[in-house]
Amino acid sequence: MPHPASLRRAPVQRRSAERLTRILDACADLLDEVGYDELSTRAVAQRAGVPIGSVYRFFGNKRQMADALAQRNLERYGARVTERLKEAGGGWRVALDALLGEYVAMKRTAPGFSLVDFGNQIPVGTRGEPNRRVADRLTDLLAGHLGHEPDDDLRRTFLVAVETADTLVHLAFRMAPEGDERILQEARELLRAYLGRVLD
Known about the structure:
Elements: H1 14-38, H2 41-48, H3 52-58, H4 62-88, H5 92-109, H6 113-116, H7 129-146, H8 152-175, H9 181-199
Helix pairs in contact: 1-2, 1-4, 2-3, 4-5, 5-9, 7-8, 8-9
């Protein structure tokens, strides 16, 4: 469920929450099909099988809808990373592989993710804010796992790592539809070298 701040009205009942899920799923599918510029609230309502008023109940415009989708992507990413870390054990290198692996997997498979991801790709919010949101989420998620305090230094370290990964993963996907593996490997090596100075 997206953060309530990205919604005009948070769903209270299960039926309302299911309707919101259908709206966001339709938004994601249409982003892949027609792109952000051609996306419309009317098309989303039609695809979701809901009245247009249901879309406006949650969102004032398509930008707010895309922002809620970005928030949902971040929640799903956090959940997927948490599951991988439970299965994989400790160490920051294992954590890095989980973080980067899940990001690339979502770029390849999650509907609408290639356009929205966590909010950087379309005019959602302020440039840089989505990456700060991701870095803060990862700091809170990983600090205990890595045996570090979630202080300002660790937050800055993760912000630099997230900005770097964001740039290089987008480059990899500009070079090849499924992500250029050589560039993705370069991204891993660069992040390992950077994080090793702080986390070793």
